[in-house]
Amino acid sequence: GLYSFSATNSGLIALVESSPPQTYFKRSITNLTDSKASNYVMYLNGSLSLFTNSNDSEILVSVAPVSSAQFMKLEFDGHLKVYEWQDQWKEVNDIFTFSIGECGYPMVCGRYGICSNGQCSCPKSSSDSTNYFRQINDRQPNLGCSEITKMTCNDSKNHRYLKLNDMNYFAFGADIIDTDMTTCKNACLRNCSCKAAIFGYASNSSKGECHLPSEIFSLMNNEKDKTRYNSYAFLKVQNETQRKRHVNGAIVGSVTGISILGIIIGCIIFTFWKKRKEDEVEEHYLDNMPGMPVRFSYDDLKSAAENFSKKLGEGGFGSVFGGTLKDDTKIAVKCLDGIGKAKKSFLAEVETIGSIHHLSLVQLIGFCAQKSHRLLVYEFMSNGSLDKWIYSGNQEIVLDWKCRKKIIHDIDKGLAYLHDECRQKILHLDIKPQNILLDEKYNAKLSDFGLSKLIDRTQSKVVTTMRGTPGYLAPEWLSAVITEKVDVYSFGVVVLEILCGRKNFEPSEPEEQRLLMSLLKRKAEEGRLMDLIDKRSEDMQLYKEEVVDTMQVAAWCLQRDYTKRPSMSTVVMVIEGAVDVEKSLDYNFLVPQTVSDINMIDSAPLLPSILSGPR
User: Fold this and answer.
1) 20: cis peptide before it, omega within 30°?
2) Residues 376 and 391 in one domain
């Protein structure tokens, strides 16, 4: 992203990407005595605090008191915002704004835009009527301004300054100190990469500081502070005659118009060609894939699903509808939405389970790939997804221990088959109760292979982009280097939810009980794991010791170090009583990352593994 936020030995620094990066927020650390020590910054109790090896702490940024679960996110526009759970995630604080104000953000008014009391405008000359900048979009002044005549180093003798009074810059850092205005301006003129000379001095001083940025973002009006501090911005512009500017504008406009028209026509032709080529490649791929299931026409499935009128559910890539084939076989039809992601999900599912069969995997009966339609046809699972049966609610039927144990065993056998018994290892990568379906006899089957990945058996690790569901993601996803043990971790979370009858993150619970894994750690240390057993089931209470043993299997699967987690084949043997659970388990599932572990927090979407649970 354009913005980054880092914790360094000198403090907290927020930067905007340029060459070199420019600072728009800084909070210095005052009590750091050992720069080589393992210090870290953590968001704790509503504040960003520094922790050192000496057990001292210093609050760097204080925010509103915590009343419920919170998390912090660096947004795409450079704002560092705090969100709090209030029936849903709501913004409760904008941390940087308190220090730098609304006009202190690099792109608040776009490049070369001037921010004044939250309003955006373009730089204008106060000495003549010549315009050097214009709005990129008159209806959206916050998009910034563009140069009417581009500056070129080949014609540096025609560079001049556009003087802006009472103007400051967010990233003011002195390149030259104790200097005068003329020296500052000349320094910028001698350097072609310099885009402006920003000069400021105190009202009671004759000397000041000079800043020479190589890239200009938004400027700030400094009129309110001019009684104690004077500041000027001298923007470097190309000084051409009015006639030459008009002639060049006409030529550039004509050439640009013709070029744009040619580009548009070329893009349209290329888009149609690329789409047709992709469709041909996909058709060839599907026709030549061995062991493919039945291929249906779109009209056949539309008729079988009664015009897609019986909606069974909705997932990340589309909706699922009930239907019946001509031979009275009940089916579930998954209609994939979108184009790019839908195709990837479609091909992933067909490639993964189109030619494999196991009692613990939902059977893919067939598919449809016709024009823009992408549909998958599965066996119908009458009891729906597991989440409807294990989370607290008003169900008429509460699953007993025998049923829950069978469900756990079905899941582990399905994953063991994917990891160890197929020609290639198959990583599911999205194991959660919503993707585990139950038939009429409560047999559990894995479904939704849209995020799955095939890897060769010669590979011990694979590099891939983060995918899956927050709350079920293993810690190693942060490195993007994963193994099949990420599925083992997700399985551990699911087992814990089955045994406890609740979600791994419950915002409605008291603060000390919201995180199920934190609760597991505390109860394990107290020797009271039985307290976690689902209290809705009297039958579960009769098998407390067996349930606690299974809870320890889940804890084994949740080890932070993936090498210490069991394989799914081992889990199968443990559940069957052939192997004992590892005794020396680490219950510290959640630990803060030190500065040396995670130094930069990018403005990309917040990493789910860093957060406390699903949102």
Assistant:
1) yes
2) no
Q: In the chain, what are the helix, strand and coil shares in percent, each to the nearest 5?
A: 30, 25, 40
pLDDT at 33: 55
**Of 155, 175, 337, 430, catalytic:** 430
User: How would residue 399 be classed by pLDDT, with cut points 50, 70 and 90?
Assistant: very high
**Strand blocks (E) in 206-355:** 208-211, 219-221, 229-238, 294-295, 311-314, 318-324, 330-336
Does the model's pTM come out above 0.70? no
Largest Cα separation within the chain, whole Å, is: 94
Q: In this structure, what are the phi and psi dihedrals at residue 570, rounded to the nearest 5 degrees?
A: -65, -40
Question: Which CATH number fits the domain that encloses residue 479?
Answer: 1.10.510.10
- Please indicate if the annotation marks 343 as binding a ligand: no
- Which structural domain, as residue segments, surrounds residue 207? 124-238
Tell which of 100, 134, 162 closes a domain: 100
Confirm if 36 and 52 have CB atoms less than 8 A apart: no
In the prediction, which pLDDT does 243 show?
40
Instruction: Tell whether 582 and 567 lie within a shared domain.
Output: yes
pLDDT in tens, 471-486: 999 999 988 889 999 9
CB-CB contact of 332 with 315 (8 Å): no
Q: Is residue 430 flagged as an active site residue?
A: yes
- Provide the CB-side half-sphere exposure for 150 (13 A, CA): 6
Contacts 24+ apart (CB under 8 A), 42-47: 42/592, 43/70, 43/71, 43/72, 46/70, 46/82
Query: Is residue 389 domain-shared with residue 374, that is, in the same domain?
Result: no
Sign of the CA dihedral with 348 first, then 464, 6, and 220 last = negative
Q: Give yes or no for residue 562 having a pLDDT over 90.
A: yes
Overall domain count for the chain: 4
Asked if residues 95 and 61 have their Cβ atoms less than 8 Å apart, the reply is: yes
What's at 277, amino acid-wise? Answer: K
Q: Among the three residues 349, 380, 411, which one is the final residue of a domain in this structure? A: 380
